[in-house]
Amino acid sequence: MGQFPLTLGRFIIRSQSQHPGATGEFSGLLSQIGLVGKVIAHDLRRAGLINILGTTGETNVQGETVKKLDEIANGTFLRAFQQHGLVCALASEEMERMVSLPENWPQGKYMLLFDPLDGSSNTDCNMPLGAIFSVLRYENNDRQPVESDMLKKGLEQVAAGYLLFGSSTMLVYTAGHGVHGFTLEPSIGEYLLSHEQIRIPDRGKVYAANEGNYHKWAPGMQKYVDYLKVSDKATGRPYSGRYSGCLVADVHRVLLGGGVYFYPGETDKPEGKLRLMYEANPLAMVVEQAGGRASTGTMRILEVEPKKLHQRVPLMIGSKQDVETIEAFIQGRS
Ligand code: AFP
Questions:
Q1: I need a surface site. Which of 127, 145, 251, 317 has the fewest CB within 10 A?
Q2: Closest Cα to atom 12, ligand 1: which residue?
Q3: So what's the pLDDT on residue 55?
Q4: Where does residue 99 rank: exposed (0-12), middle (13-18), buried (19+ CB within 10 A)?
């Protein structure tokens, strides 16, 4: 009889014992992320039924306003973290400003930044969606955090990860000691360790990008995509295109099987589309911890100096050699 699979809770306790000085706070935060994942997965499963259940335009039969699932997911994160003394500040793609907790509420030593629902365009067609989170530490006990306290480089993240709402619900995270993946067993409501110590292959055969933007890309980027399509056994080309419309799903595929995802800058949007603080930075930490690389095309994502909470950044992320090849093309070295 095989050993009983490790639950997220047991894994966190085991990891905590391996890192002296680790307080239960981080473990509590991660468990809350798991809870948020269960709630959002439940809401997404019902999303397809909301129309059948008789919503009419903006309100449903109970007279409730049918909010966008992004806002619902954002509310789930807020409810999960506002009262439990795990964090002292929250920031989200769905909220213009950072939210700090009322002074009389228990304050934690972490700041949580998140994209509560990544890939929202996939909601109506039952395609995968995700949520991304980044954890920063806040040490100053003299005052509550302000937004500028969040503007830390990705290198300063204490933990990062994502929830993937696909054929199954997964939680993948790193706290700086490798990357671990858990799959939700809905019948018992537990996340079970399914991918311990994930390592990304040095090179893959898959690329994920929206080639509809090809003519807006810089010449080096266009040359790279043309290069991927030329047949060459030695370098595993041509690569296969796999693009889901959900960053988390595409990065998860690349994390497990190798390859690269990229959303580059464009002629009218040189900074690209994706957000640094709660999309590129957390995924860059995960992928680098698994042995991969994440770049703007000219520098490491984790070293980008943030100027604004919602700033965008070009993103090339995945297998180390694949990202290095892109950088060579973008920098005219290839
Ligand atoms: P949405 O959440 O607005 O659908 O954006 C998803 C996303 O941020 C990322 O998950 C996708 O990889 C990328 O944008 C898709 O963008 P395009 O539709 O421009 O390809």
A1: 127
A2: 247
A3: 42
A4: middle
Q: What pTM does this model have? A: 0.94
Cβ neighbours of residue 55 closer than 8 Å, sequence gap 6 or more:
61, 66
Atom of ligand 1 nearest to the CA of 118: 2
Q: 245 in ligand 1 pocket by Cβ < 6 Å?
A: yes
CA-250 nearest atom, ligand 1: 12
Cβ count within 10 A of residue 192: 16
Expressed in angstroms and rounded, the spacing between residue 208 Cα and the centre of ligand 1 is 12
Q: Is 251 in the pocket of ligand 1 (CB under 6 A)?
A: no
> Which domains, ranges and CATH numbers included, belong to the chain?
8-195 (3.30.540.10), 206-330 (3.40.190.80)
**Ligand 1 centre and the CA of 313: distance in Å?**
13
- Which residue's C-alpha comes closest to atom 2 of ligand 1? 119
pLDDT tens figures, 133-168: 999 999 888 899 999 999 999 999 999 999 999 999
Q: How far is CA 320 from CA 88, 129, 203, in A?
A: 35, 25, 7
Q: What is the mean pLDDT of the chain?
A: 92
Identify any residues that bridge with 65 across adjacent strands, giving them in sequence order: 59
Distance CA 317, CA 280 (A): 9
Amino acid at 155: L
**Residue 35 — φ and ψ, nearest 5°?**
-65, -45
Report the atom number in ligand 1 closest to the C-alpha of 122: 4
Q: Which tokens is 230 given?
A: 């030329």
Is residue 153 within 8 Å of residue 304, measured between CB atoms?
A: yes
State the closest ligand 1 atom to the C-alpha of 212, by its place in the atom list counted from 1: 20
